[in-house]
Recover the amino acids of this structure.
């Protein structure tokens, strides 16, 4: 699949899937080891195949995908709810509208675009923040739903038009499903563990292949109720889940729809607002942003300098760079990038992007305002790194 995802349209990528699911890291090793014979004359001067083979006939899975959630949630699960769907240029924009209506919801279509818009669910654009608040007030919505460009990452706003973080969405969805084992990257909100809702949790590197590997390991260990999610909100279901006597079959690839519907169904079942659901979670808030046009080589060089020497020397180096922001460093985690925990339980996590010349910064604190404040201060430090 050629996809625009959430990055600028001049950096479109390509994704591969097997019949049984996503291409994982062990698959990539086998693919790289293969010898491919590129015959002379097969390609023209522009690099295109001279005689491309016809593609197989397309299979429309839309009906089956919609029916999957109608069967699980019920045809009236969103009855009485007024939901906005921010369509922009997302590939799944029309399916999302059809699905919400099939579940009994009243849908208001918003912001449809004929040109590509790079919606990043981990770094929501200021204009989208303003639009959501405006739409929520103007149309009296219970929630606003959207996705990134290739519709595998969810974006949901509450009744006030405030966008929920994807990792919080993942915790709420896993709880609604009654999950017992949850896998998520190291960058996700620690409310997962602090909630006490789950018997077992596993932290991984960032990326759905790593989450899938952790879920597969959990299944091999005989753990029941296995699922996972990413900080961007994409949800992966490894075990069948039962809620109110209805079973949802596994779907171990990133899904944007399930977590949003789970939150809406939970709010309706509890007769409360979407924002009220957040009150049951521990007071842990995350924020993420990035420095764009930051060479990957420079990012790796800077992080390597913070990881030189002993553990005490590494903590001291990180503290010299960010101590003015959050104080004393008590721990470092190099699972993916470099994640520092401070004595006041604040977190600063630095990681070069895997698909763009960007340096990402994730922060966590006891309040949303403080998480945003830390992030802004950390980005100032990172911006200075780029200066010659």
């Amino acid at each position: 699949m050629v996809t625009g995802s959430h990055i600028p349209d001049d950096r479109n990528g390509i994704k591969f899937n097997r019949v049984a699911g996503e291409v994982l890291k062990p698959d990539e090793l086998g693919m790289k080891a293969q010898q491919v014979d590129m015959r002379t004359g097969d390609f023209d001067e522009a690099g295109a195949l001279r005689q491309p083979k016809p593609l197989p006939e397309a299979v429309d899975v839309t009906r089956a995908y919609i029916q999957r959630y109608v069967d699980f949630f019920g045809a009236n699960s969103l009855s009485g709810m007024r939901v906005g769907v921010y369509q922009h240029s997302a590939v799944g924009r029309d399916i999302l509208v059809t699905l919400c209506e099939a579940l009994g919801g009243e849908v208001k279509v918003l912001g449809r675009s004929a040109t590509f818009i790079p919606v990043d669910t981990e770094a929501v654009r200021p204009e989208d923040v303003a639009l959501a608040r405006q739409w929520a007030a103007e149309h009296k919505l219970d929630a606003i739903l959207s996705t990134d460009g290739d519709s595998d990452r969810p974006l949901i706003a509450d009744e006030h038009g405030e966008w929920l973080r994807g990792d919080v969405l993942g915790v709420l969805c896993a709880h609604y499903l009654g999950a017992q084992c949850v896998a998520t990257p190291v960058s996700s909100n620690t409310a997962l563990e602090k909630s006490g809702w789950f018997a077992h949790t596993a932290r991984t590197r960032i990326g759905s292949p790593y989450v899938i590997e952790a879920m597969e390991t959990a299944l091999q260990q005989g753990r029941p109720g296995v699922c996972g999610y990413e900080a961007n909100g994409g949800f992966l279901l490894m075990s069948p889940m039962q809620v109110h006597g209805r079973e949802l079959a596994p779907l171990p690839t990133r899904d944007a729809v399930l977590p949003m519907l789970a939150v809406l169904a939970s709010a309706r079942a509890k007769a409360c607002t979407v924002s009220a659901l957040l009150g049951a979670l521990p007071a842990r808030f995350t924020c993420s942003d990035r420095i764009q046009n930051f060479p990957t080589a420079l990012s790796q060089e800077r992080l390597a300098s913070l990881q030189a020497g002993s553990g005490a020397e590494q903590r001291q180096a990180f503290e010299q760079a960010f101590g003015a922001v959050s104080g004393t460093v008590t721990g470092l985690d190099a699972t993916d990038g470099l994640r520092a925990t401070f004595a006041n339980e604040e977190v600063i996590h630095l990681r070069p992007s895997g698909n763009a010349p960007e340096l990402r910064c994730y922060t966590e604190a006891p309040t949303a305002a403080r998480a945003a404040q830390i992030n802004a201060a950390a980005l100032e430090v990172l911006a200075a790194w780029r200066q010659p």
Remarks:
- The mean pLDDT is 92.
- The first strand starts at residue 2 and ends at 3.
- The chain has twelve helices and 20 strands.
- Residues 126 and 182 are 31 Å apart (CA to CA).
